[in-house]
Amino acid sequence: MNRFHGTGVALVTPFNADGSVDYDGLKKLINYQIDGKVEYLVSLGTTGESATLNKDEKKKIWAYTAEINNGRLPLVAGIGGNYTAEVVEAIREFDKNGYDAILSASPYYNKPTQEGIYQHYKAISEATDLSVFLYNVPGRTASNVSAETTCRLATDFKNIIGTKEASGNFDQFNQIMRDKPADFMLISGDDPVTLPMIALGAVGLISVSGNALPLETSEMVRACLRGDFKAAQPLHQQLIEFTRLMFVEGNPAGVKAALKHFGVCGDAVRLPLVAASAGLTQDIVSQINKIRK
Question: Is residue 78 within 8 Å of 10, Cβ to Cβ?
Answer without folding.
Answer: yes
